[in-house]
């Protein structure tokens, strides 16, 4: 019975195939391993497949797997797309492919060493000189950098697809900082969770040996200078499209994730700036492109690199994977000369075909290209952002002429590749199995002399029918990639054991992350405080709904004004002359909730918070990430809330509030009590004190009549989460003296100023000391001063108001002083712990400044 | 001619600088017509170590870094240089057109020259630059004569004016305003030559200047200088100084060769600081009796 349906699913797929397909062999028969996959899919059923597909989407989202697209209007995170149908290659075929890949890696390594060495390839006219000297990847400062292992090309990735002859063809090389291996691993992990039954009938090779090889290579490189090397993973930061992968891989491999500003060069070594010391760095795995690695000798305006890095590399005091300069072999033009280079350097023919490539810098090739554009894909020899490959057959007559003129003007800049027909592979799209073009990225790592190939890869397929659009930037789908075997393979994992387990290198807190965690604390609390206060105001507004259209009661006016002070969104409700805003306060009120462009609004605060949490994504565990996703969802609902539906807005704020609390709860229960935790807590407490003091000041600096003041006292108590306690003790009697005494002095209630200041000073005392342990540092002194001011108050005297102006000078000034002191703690902490963020400038001495008249 | 050369650069910063990385290109080379007898580099505050290095073009660079807060940085390079008389080889009658063909077709020549024919960091050209170069460097014109003419043309049509351009002023502007300093004129001449398919490189160095008659030479009155070097088949690399319209002889001291200023800047650096900085440079080229 099952068999019958299986045939029908496979048959229905076979019916929609309109080109040669991965599933079918050259005799027109279904390949046996695809047959078993289809059998399993059949037993799962197409409806269940849809359910699992949704599960994949959820899992990826929960795991925070994204591929950032720079010009995507819908925020910067695009979820990673994973097709539930894997891409299969049988091991027998794979062994042949592997040989081709290894040969290619060796070849590129030799070309690389020749270009930065004797340049025999140019001298013997095997490759044209232009493709070296006019190659934007050829970096002169790198000519005298040789790392200690024989292979200079340590990591290599290439894209392949099945060509018309049924073999895998090489489409593209990635040599400077190949990305994708982390996504491949995550794809495998998610697939294994969502489709446990898929691997029951099919044996597939494991991906982890590749990563073990990588760790061993890193250990070998690092061992040259340090028996327990300190390894960092250098990322350009959260703005980078593959940032997820940097976070994921660094944590999987056990290396500290850093940005350029976390590193510095000093005394011939590279150092990691952690908040209390400098740690020597032995190996850098970089995801920063070649040119951006060292602003001193390469791109001078790069803020992503480390000034002086190249010099340390020359001294052999740090190893970099891959060393800068490797992008020279990514040039498309070189692909036209691979066959000859292979014969010259390896004395053997190329094992793996590349797509036929013509470099227009030669007259014969130029003519061929100009005459055959409709059959070709035109690219620039130097990879440059912004130049999209042009498909000749898609051009109109005018466009064709235009392209020809462009090529003729600078033929050396252009490369043409044959547009080959590639194979299709089943993809699950809109609930159906349909054929789509696909390409697979393979990953290789050198052990010094030889290359190891990942037993799998990252396959990307086109979401569009009959089109080859696989890049993630354009919305391509990814696939788990299986090297299928007939029998289960045993695997031996060699684990790199750290020689010194007491070594804490890999959880160093960089100064940058210290600052980010501090700001996570502040921004989280800022959002909390505002949400909480808004809820109080919305409640009062709802109670007051009967008076609609009339003048707002005085207590609401005071609360509205407090809101403007709290959010610093002047003039807002504080306009002295024009009070018309109170006739319809909801417009301003709701812009403070939902207007993401308005600095100080809830939406704005959430967005800033989310951005900052992303800066330190490696610190969050799975659950924290889920909560962050929920907060992200809240942002969407908050952005859409409108004054037309106050209840819905209140509901949205309630939801957000609970989620923010879940965030607090989660980090409080799970974060290790290290410097990062205490900085986050310090940030939270600073912000909490500042926001409470701000509301207190606005509410009570001027005396109001008793009725108004009673409502305000209730509101303020609620804002401090103290209303219930207060009623418990004082029942219905409410007086400003008792209220202030409680808010200022009560030691055991978490939202009183005394409690918060004590907590803050406790956090600060846990942070590292550069001076003698018993001496208070600047931040601690400032908090002590504020705390003393609060604890010395006399509530009776605080509430005294001037008979004419109703101003309460002592209350207002005390609160103002405390506010200023606590504000200053941030800059104290900055100079103590975050002092890395001085701006970096590059400059050249300029001749025009020379004071001389004659030259 | 023997010279005592002193090149002093002082940076003063408004806010103190905590970290500083620098690459210097200040040491004159020893060449067939020039001997560097002695070179000394003094840096204040003093770095832990100075690392010398030969760059891709064979120039000597020095790298150092500073990590103590400082508000001034002083770099003084002194050298004892002997410049020997240059004997100009017989002038070749090869034309611009012939030279260009040679560069295209002779493989070994092509490899040597290509990087000096391509656009570089500060040098690129457009139709305007081409048409400026056209009459001097027409295909039938003898190359040597053409370059001399180009040098004269720049000397006559352009006004030397310091402070008008900066290192980042595009050549277009220099050509339009007809003003600049030696660096601009050299870049412009190189752009002209490269736009015609010829090979030219940038020379960084010094020139001895003489005080007005009857007056003593003032300290620090000299300057670093730049001129060009052009490849002329049968003659080899020949130097021209478009700023002074002369063929460099014993008064020119060579520090470094490069594709343009970016390759051979006397001093480049990356600082970590939040404020402005000022720079003052003093150069003395003092002739010594042999």
From TrEMBL, chain A:
<feature type="domain" description="Circularly permuted ATP-grasp type 2">
    <location>
        <begin position="86"/>
        <end position="461"/>
    </location>
</feature>
<dbReference type="Pfam" id="PF04168">
    <property type="entry name" value="Alpha-E"/>
</dbReference>
<feature type="domain" description="DUF403">
    <location>
        <begin position="509"/>
        <end position="834"/>
    </location>
</feature>
<protein>
    <recommendedName>
        <fullName>DUF403 domain-containing protein</fullName>
    </recommendedName>
</protein>
<dbReference type="InterPro" id="IPR051680">
    <property type="entry name" value="ATP-dep_Glu-Cys_Ligase-2"/>
</dbReference>
<dbReference type="InterPro" id="IPR007296">
    <property type="entry name" value="DUF403"/>
</dbReference>
<dbReference type="InterPro" id="IPR025841">
    <property type="entry name" value="CP_ATPgrasp_2"/>
</dbReference>
<dbReference type="Pfam" id="PF14403">
    <property type="entry name" value="CP_ATPgrasp_2"/>
</dbReference>
TrEMBL record, chain B:
<dbReference type="Pfam" id="PF01841">
    <property type="entry name" value="Transglut_core"/>
</dbReference>
<dbReference type="InterPro" id="IPR013589">
    <property type="entry name" value="Bac_transglu_N"/>
</dbReference>
<protein>
    <recommendedName>
        <fullName>Transglutaminase-like domain-containing protein</fullName>
    </recommendedName>
</protein>
<dbReference type="InterPro" id="IPR002931">
    <property type="entry name" value="Transglutaminase-like"/>
</dbReference>
<dbReference type="Pfam" id="PF08379">
    <property type="entry name" value="Bact_transglu_N"/>
</dbReference>
<feature type="domain" description="Transglutaminase-like">
    <location>
        <begin position="174"/>
        <end position="244"/>
    </location>
</feature>
<dbReference type="InterPro" id="IPR038765">
    <property type="entry name" value="Papain-like_cys_pep_sf"/>
</dbReference>
């Amino acid at each position: 019975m099952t068999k019958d349906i299986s045939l029908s699913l496979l048959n229905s797929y076979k019916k929609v195939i309109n080109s040669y397909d991965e599933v079918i062999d050259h005799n027109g028969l279904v390949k046996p391993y695809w047959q078993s996959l289809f059998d399993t899919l059949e037993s799962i059923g197409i409806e269940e497949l849809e359910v699992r597909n949704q599960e994949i989407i959820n899992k990826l989202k929960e795991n925070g797997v994204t591929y950032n697209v720079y010009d995507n209007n819908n925020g910067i995170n695009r979820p990673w797309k994973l097709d539930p149908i894997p891409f299969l290659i049988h091991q027998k075929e794979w062994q042949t492919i592997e040989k081709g890949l290894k040969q290619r890696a060796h070849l590129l390594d030799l070309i690389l060493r020749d270009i930065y060495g004797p340049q025999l390839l140019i001298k013997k006219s095997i490759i044209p000189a232009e493709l070296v000297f006019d190659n934007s990847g050829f970096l002169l400062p790198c000519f005298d950098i040789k790392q200690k292992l024989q292979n200079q090309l340590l990591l290599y990735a290439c894209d392949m697809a099945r060509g018309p002859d049924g073999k895998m063809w090489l489409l593209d090389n990635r040599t400077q900082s190949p990305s994708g291996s982390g996504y491949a691993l995550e794809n495998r992990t998610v697939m294994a969770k969502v489709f446990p039954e898929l691997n029951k009938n099919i044996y597939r090779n494991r991906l982890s040996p590749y990563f073990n090889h990588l760790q061993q290579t890193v250990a070998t490189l690092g061992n040259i200078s340090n028996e327990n090397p300190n390894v960092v993973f250098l990322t350009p930061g959260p703005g980078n499209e593959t940032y997820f992968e940097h976070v994921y891989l660094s944590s999987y491999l056990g290396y500290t994730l850093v940005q350029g500003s976390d590193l510095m060069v000093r005394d011939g070594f590279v150092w990691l700036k952690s908040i209390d010391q400098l740690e020597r760095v032995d190996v850098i795995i970089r995801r920063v492109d070649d040119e951006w690695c060292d602003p001193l000798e390469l791109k001078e305006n790069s803020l992503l690199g480390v000034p002086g890095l190249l010099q340390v590399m020359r001294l052999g005091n740090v190893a970099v994977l891959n060393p800068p300069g490797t992008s020279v072999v990514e040039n498309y033009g070189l692909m036209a000369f691979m066959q000859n280079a292979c014969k010259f350097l390896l004395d053997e023919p190329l094992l793996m075909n590349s797509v036929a490539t013509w470099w227009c810098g030669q007259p014969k090739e130029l003519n061929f290209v100009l005459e055959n554009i409709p059959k070709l894909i035109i690219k620039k020899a130097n990879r440059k952002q912004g130049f999209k490959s042009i498909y000749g057959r898609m051009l109109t007559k005018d466009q064709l002429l235009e392209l020809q003129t462009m090529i003729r003007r600078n033929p050396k800049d252009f490369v043409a590749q044959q547009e080959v027909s590639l194979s299709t592979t089943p993809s699950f799209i809109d609930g159906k199995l349909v054929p789509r073009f696909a390409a697979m990225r393979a990953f290789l790592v050198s052990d010094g002399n030889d290359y190891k190939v990942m037993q799998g890869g990252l396959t990307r397929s086109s979401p569009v029918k009959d089109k080859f659009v696989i890049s993630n930037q354009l919305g391509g789908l990814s696939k788990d990639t299986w090297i299928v075997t007939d029998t289960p393979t045993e695997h031996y994992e060699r684990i790199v054991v750290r020689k010194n387990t007491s070594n804490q290198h890999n959880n160093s807190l960089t100064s940058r992350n210290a600052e980010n965690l501090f700001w996570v604390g502040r921004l989280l609390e800022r959002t909390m405080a505002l949400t909480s206060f808004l809820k109080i105001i919305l409640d009062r507004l709802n109670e007051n709904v009967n008076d609609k259209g009339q003048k707002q009661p005085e207590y609401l006016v005071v609360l509205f004004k407090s809101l403007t002070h709290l959010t610093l969104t002047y003039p807002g409700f504080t306009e002295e002359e024009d009070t018309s805003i109170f006739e319809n306060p909801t417009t301003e009120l709701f812009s403070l909730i939902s207007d993401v462009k308005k600095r100080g609004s809830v939406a704005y605060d959430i967005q800033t918070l989310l951005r900052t949490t992303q800066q330190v994504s490696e610190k969050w565990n799975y659950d924290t990430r889920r909560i962050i996703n929920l907060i992200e969802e809240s942002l969407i609902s908050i952005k859409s809330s409108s004054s037309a539906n106050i209840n819905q807005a209140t509901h949205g704020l309630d939801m957000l509030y609970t989620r923010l609390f879940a965030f607090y709860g989660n980090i409080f229960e799970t974060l290790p009590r290290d410097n990062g935790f205490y900085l986050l807590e310090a940030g939270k407490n600073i912000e909490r004190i500042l926001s409470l003091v701000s509301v207190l000041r606005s509410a009570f600096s001027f005396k109001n009549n008793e009725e108004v003041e009673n409502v305000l006292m209730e509101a303020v108590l609620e804002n401090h989460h103290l209303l219930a306690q207060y009623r418990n003790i004082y029942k219905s009697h409410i007086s400003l003296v008792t209220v202030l005494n409680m808010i200022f002095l009560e030691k055991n209630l978490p939202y009183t100023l005394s409690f918060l200041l004590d907590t803050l000073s406790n956090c600060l005392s846990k942070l590292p000391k550069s001076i003698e342990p018993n001496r208070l540092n600047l931040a601690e002194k400032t908090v002590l001063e504020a705390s003393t001011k609060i604890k010395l108050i006399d509530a009776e005297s605080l509430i005294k108001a001037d008979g004419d102006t109703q101003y309460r000078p002592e209350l207002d000034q005390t609160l103002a002083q405390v506010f200023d002191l606590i504000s200053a703690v941030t800059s104290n902490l900055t100079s103590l712990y975050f002092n890395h963020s001085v701006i970096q400038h590059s400059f050249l001495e300029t001749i025009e400044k020379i004071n001389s008249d004659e030259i | 001619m023997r010279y005592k050369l002193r090149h002093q650069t002082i940076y003063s910063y408004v806010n103190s600088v905590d970290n500083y990385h620098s690459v210097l290109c200040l040491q004159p080379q020893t060449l067939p017509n020039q001997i560097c007898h002695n070179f000394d580099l003094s840096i204040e505050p003093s770095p832990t170590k100075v690392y010398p290095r030969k760059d891709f073009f064979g120039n000597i660079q020095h790298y150092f870094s500073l990590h103590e807060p400082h508000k001034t940085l002083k770099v003084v390079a002194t050298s004892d240089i002997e410049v020997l008389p240059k004997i100009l080889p017989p002038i070749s009658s090869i034309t611009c057109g012939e030279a260009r063909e040679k560069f295209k077709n002779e493989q070994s020549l092509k490899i040597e020259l290509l990087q000096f024919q391509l656009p570089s960091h500060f040098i690129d050209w457009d139709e305007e630059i081409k048409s400026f170069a056209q009459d001097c460097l027409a295909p039938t014109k003898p190359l040597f004569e053409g370059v001399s003419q180009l040098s004269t043309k720049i000397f006559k049509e352009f006004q030397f004016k310091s402070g008008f351009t900066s290192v980042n002023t595009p050549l277009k502007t220099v050509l339009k305003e007809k003003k600049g300093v030696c660096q601009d004129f050299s870049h412009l001449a190189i752009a002209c030559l490269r736009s015609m398919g010829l090979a030219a490189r940038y020379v960084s160095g010094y020139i001895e200047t003489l005080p007005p008659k009857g007056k003593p030479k003032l300290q620090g009155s000299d300057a670093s200088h730049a001129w060009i070097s052009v490849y002329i088949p049968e003659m080899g690399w020949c130097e021209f100084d478009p700023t002074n319209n002369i063929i460099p002889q014993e008064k020119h001291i060579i520090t470094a060769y490069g594709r343009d200023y970016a390759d051979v800047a006397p001093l480049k650096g990356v600082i970590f600081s939040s404020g402005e900085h000022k720079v003052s440079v003093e150069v003395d080229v003092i002739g010594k009796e042999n």
